[in-house]
Amino acid sequence: MMQKQKKIRGIIAGGSGMIGGALVHYFNKCCPNNIEILSPNSKKMSLAVPEDIERYTNKWKPDFIINAAIAAIDSDPQLAYTINYIGSINLAKAALKLQIPYIFISSAATLPSGNLLTEEQTLDLDANLSNYAKSKLMSELTLRHMAEQDGLDFTTIRLAIVYGKHDHKTQGFHRLLYSVADQAMPIFLTAKGIQHSYSNAGKVPLFVHHTLQNRAEFSGQVYNFVDPKPVELVHLIQTIKSFLGVSKPRNIFVPLRIANFGANCLKSLLKTLLKIGIDAKMPPELMFLDQFYESQTLDAGKLQRSSFSDPCPEQTIFAELPEMIEYYISRWEQRNMLSGFNDEFFVPREDVQQFIKKPHHLLQKIHDGDFRPFLNFSELPKKQNKSKEPPSTV
């Protein structure tokens, strides 16, 4: 008689986000069915409520915990500190109590600018860091401390600029894509030669799964999970322009000092508007303006020397760009998020065009039977009435 395989259970925090969603999909659809994934929302397990974490982990007793949750990059200090740091460490304490692996998704925001930055390099913890960078860096440092002092079994996976589909918050690379598509970037707010590293969201779950299967190698380690080759920002924007067939940004490069002057003027205007009751925020593109003028590339050497093998090395940001553009432009058009975009790129189906321009004509065609957009339910198998009694009426 075959022995039934033990069910492995994992908790993924942040399962509604881009990386968390990719992890949930991977473990539910692409892994052996002996793995059960729980991805509680904030009502079931809020990272801001320590008792929630203790209650939930005690109830389900997972075999591993993955933390892909983050507060928004522009969050206020309290939210960033509570979610990104306190919540993260409370999850780690739960993992330590259960003696299970803890996988922490971190960010290149913890690193300085520069080229080929290694896992050992980080920013100095300083009050002037952004709330996001400060909270992520504090998490990295505390996890290392817990490993040394208490024996925490953790792996930190540090991502750079993430690309992929299903980013519903429109941030990072997808914010750049949106800015070009919406013609919100009339000129280049960067300089030639500026390079950054990029992380493929679809490959993160493969690496996470591999680290869980090989704890002896990956326990207590930090890995830069990035594509081996960095990308020049100007080249990437020009490639997006070419795919979209748009004219902006024009081939004019604004020096950083002038760009900062414009951003400071906008900050002053927003403060003035706030005083008269109009709440407005800085555009995300301007909040991280300095990063457009400074290279930051991560060394992927440690990742390449590990036992993990990239199954699709050809899947780079340039290779994935056509599919991502089609996905996001369609989504943004359907949600009326694009104002200055070339409408010829997104051509609706003929019936959708009639729905927009001639709804009465479309309705008449449907009613006359000349167009049938609906499912033919007559071809579906009829439901068997298992009960011999007639259905009751209310």
Considering DSSP H and I runs of 4 or more, what fraction of the residues is helical? 40-55%
Adjacency order of strands in the biggest sheet: 2-1-3-4-6-11
Helix count equals: 14
Can you tell me the number of structural domains? 2
H/E series:
EHEHEHEEHEEHEEEHHEEHEHHEHHHH
User: Main β-sheet: number of strands, strand sense, barrel status?
Assistant: 6 strands, parallel
Shape: globular
Number of strands: 14
Decide which structural class fits the backbone. alpha/beta
The poorly predicted ranges are 386-394
Task: Please state roughly what percent of the residues sit in beta strands, choosing from under 5%, 5-15%, 15-25%, 25-35%, 35-45% or over 45%.
Answer: 5-15%
* CATH architecture group name of the largest domain: 3-Layer(aba) Sandwich
Mean pLDDT, rounded to whole units?
Answer: 84
What is the class of the largest domain in the CATH system?
Alpha Beta
Task: Sum this structure up briefly.
The chain has 14 helices and 14 strands. The chain has 394 residues and is of the alpha/beta class.
List strands and helices in order, with pairings.
Layout: E1 8-13, H1 18-29, E2 35-38, H2 50-60, E3 64-67, H3 77-98, E4 102-107, E5 114-117, H4 131-150, E6 154-159, E7 161-163, H5 173-181, E8 187-188, E9 195-196, E10 198-200, H6 204-213, H7 215-218, E11 221-225, E12 231-232, H8 233-244, E13 250-253, H9 256-275, H10 284-287, E14 296-298, H11 301-305, H12 317-334, H13 350-357, H14 359-367
Parallel strand pairs: 1-2, 1-3, 3-4, 4-6, 5-14, 6-11, 7-10, 8-13
Antiparallel strand pairs: 9-12
